[in-house]
Give the backbone structure.
Amino acid sequence: MKALGKGSIASIVRVGLTIAWYVLWVAAVCVLVGAISYGVVLTLIANGSIDPALLQGGAGNADLGEQGGGNFHVTYDQPGGGTWPVVVPALLIAGVVVAGSLIIVWRLRKLFDSFSSGEPFQRENATHLRVIWITMLAIEVSRYVLLALTGILLARFGGPDVDANYQLAIDFSTWGSILILIVLAEVFREGARLKEEQELTI
């Protein structure tokens, strides 16, 4: 099977990217619903409608409603707890990753559109690759910042122990991919320039 053009491997990859595009939108909706739901829970706790113990971690019963007379009890078991210093940074990290992934997949779809048409060396492809590596860089840096913020919040307000060494570990595969994409972006830019010069010469 040929790598480029119609009915090629590039065409199959493009189909996979289209599926990933819709899956990521589902994930984005889930993150949004999760953020709204958590905000509602915090509001209900602030109003006294829900027992704050629900987010403190451990196991037990949380009382819904005011104390005394027909309270509705919910059994919970949250070993890690769900306090805002843990959940809010986690939601932000999830939001950054999903949003960044949507940008990357969108650009990859455009990239593989040209691969499927059999014309890989276009100026737009260099731009797509540049946006992809910049987005990957932004995601990785944001992850470090938000994980550091989580550690600061947990130290300040208390919460479950977090293995910071594990979570803040440098992902060399990601940084390696970024460096490769930087080089590929320049290769495609140069290839597009040479192609344009050849067309002008002819």
Q: What stands out?
A: The chain is about 70% helix and 5% strand. Residues 78 and 151 are 19 Å apart (CA to CA). The chain has one domain: 9-54+83-201.
